[in-house]
Design a protein that fits this description.
Blueprint: H1 2-11, E1 29-35, E2 40-43, E3 46-58, E4 64-69, E5 74-80, E6 85-92, E7 95-102, H2 104-108, E8 116-123
Parallel strand pairs: 1-3, 3-8
Antiparallel strand pairs: 1-2, 3-6, 4-5, 4-7, 7-8
Length: 134
């Protein structure tokens, strides 16, 4: 009887199931952005679809709200004070996105800060093989 219990227990100790359903999402990538007096820049500007962490630094003299906007996505953070940073976390799909900065001063003076463009391609591979992931 004890031998049968041991066989049943060992039968359940097979190889791990690497075919998770659903598979893990891609590993989040970090994108940096900067606001200057004239424009918003992001790097890298071409990425694959999946989770992102956009860290934006305000190098202008005014506080700004930052907006990440695409066809079906709109995320906003701010206002970001001069010489400060803020973070937007989003899961982006394939398409084109703009990263815009605005402030009361920009509206009052009709001062336009050119937005950055973020181009998102096909989905990045699963993060299944990444170490130290939950």
């Amino acid at each position: 009887m004890a031998g049968l219990a041991l066989v049943i227990t060992l039968a359940g100790c097979g190889q791990p199931d690497y075919n998770r359903r659903p598979p893990r999402p891609p590993t989040p990538i970090q994108i940096t952005g900067v606001i200057t007096e004239r424009q918003v820049e992001v790097s890298p500007s071409h990425i694959g679809a999946g989770p992102i962490v956009l860290i934006v630094s305000n190098q202008d003299g005014a506080s700004h709200t930052v907006i990440l906007e695409g066809e079906q996505k709109r995320e906003q953070v701010g206002p970001i004070n001069p010489q400060d940073t803020a973070t937007i976390q989003a899961n982006v799909q394939q398409g084109r996105y703009t990263v815009r900065a605005g402030s009361e001063r920009a509206v009052a003076r009709s001062r336009m800060i050119s937005p950055a463009e973020l181009v998102v391609g096909r989905e990045r591979p699963s993060g299944e093989d990444e170490l130290l992931r939950p």
